[in-house]
Amino acid sequence: MSGHGYENGRLNLPFVGICTFGKNPYVEDWDAIDADVAILGAPFDFGAQWRSGARMGPRAIREASTLFSFGHAGAYDHEDDVTYLDPTKVSIVDLGDADIIHTDTIQSHANIEYGVRKILAAGALPVVLGGDHSVNIPCINAFDDQDPIHLVQIDAHLDFVDERHGVRYGHGNPMRRAAEKPYVTGLSQIGIRNVSSTAKDGYEDARAMGSDIQSVRQMRALGVDGMLARIPAGQRYYLTIDIDAFDPSIAPGTGTPSHGGFHYYEVLELIAGLAKRGQIVGIDLVEVAPDYDHSGITAILAAQLLMNTIGRVMHARG
To answer: What are phi and psi of 264, to 5 degrees?
Structure first.
């Protein structure tokens, strides 16, 4: 290969190659998952009540994540003096996507649940790329044979509608479906604000079913440490992140943007603290809709947040 630039291996710049998450290995055989972290795409958006397009979210997040593949050993954070995602210590694989059956919510959700179950059976951390927020329903279903979990939701919307015109598995329902599970011990719902898709009785039901609801302004008044202090310590946490928790000035690419949202560091600091407060055992990030994201910044935010979240989760595990 002399003369072709391969004497020292490939440079492998971000725009070169196949778009797996962070350019990590693709594993097609879900019975052969051998990694610390497994990425699963859930490109389903039939649960959306307004603008569709989150079905393209996993593809956009993967492409954006190539920016953070770097090609050298891990990502050094000088503020923390930690090298996160050292490939000699943390292994990540990308399983591709769950199969989605157009117009069939039940079977599409079942296919997502199947993938998450395979990840859990392999002892890996599931990280699911949505898709609309309804994909959280099959993710939580997959934990029915695991130890109990406390659900931490970072979102603009409460998503606690029980049923509306017969719809129970749309993107306005997932936190209600989770709260019904005997193995979900409580919910921390953070960032909830403005005119909501959930009526007052939904908020009352959420609190009655063990939920702590805090808006962006309420969390800022508490501070990150004050917010963390409200979350039960030493628990197993499932983390669900709706990209519309962030202000649309930095995350316009979503179906239901809501002004007055979070900025990057306050969410990262909250997640970093959560990773130390207990054990994060599952993650989904939903509602990235790239057709409304003309500069790509929403997908970049999603990829950057996930990379840093995975790094902090695995570092906290030692």
So the answer is: -60, -55
